[in-house]
Amino acid sequence: MTAPAKIMTEEPSVSMELLDNFKEFSLLLERALLSGERVVITRQGKPMGAIVPWEDVEILRALEDKVDGQAAAEALKEPGALSLKEVERELGL
Known about the structure:
By secondary structure, the protein is of the alpha+beta class. The protein is built from three helices and three strands.
């Protein structure tokens, strides 16, 4: 069972250099899965990516959907904006 999803603002407690630790990848993935820990993957000391629990990905997707929805609502307020139904009608769909 995975740890409950939580939004974390602190820095990840683990960092791995990309080329140095491929053999440890599965262990780090397991840590992320079981403890909810985030692992930063670096190249020459610069962050390049991360290993995160799947719950973090789901949270990011939900946040993106919310932001996209808000942006769409704002765009519909602009003069001359058309709704999806109006566009479909104009295109004969």
